[in-house]
Write a structure and sequence with these properties.
Elements lengths: L1 E6 L2 E6 L5 E11 L2 E10 L5 E9 L11 E4 L3 E7 L6 E7 L10
Antiparallel strand pairs: 1-2, 2-6, 3-4, 4-5, 5-6, 7-8
Amino acid sequence: MSKAFQGRHGRAYLFSNVVNVTQGPIEERLLITGMHTVCDIQCSVCGSVLGWKYESAFEESQKYKEGKFILEKARVVLKRDGDGDGGATDTRVVGGSSHSDEESE
């Protein structure tokens, strides 16, 4: 995981693998670091857009991102489920809100 990324809504993280997401259509996007081929990723439960997947990069220096995922901190929610009496707690990340604005990285 890398923390040095900016998403549409603030801080974002680069991951090699994510689970419980679906992928949208592939498109070319001009991001801060240049042109990339990406697809949005959505929460498979609620459908909120959580970030995007890098399919390909046009700049040689950006090729390391190919096949990796951006999750935006503002788009995910840490949810804790427990029994309320100090017993076992399940912590997981779930989708947040689903509005959008300009691209960044």
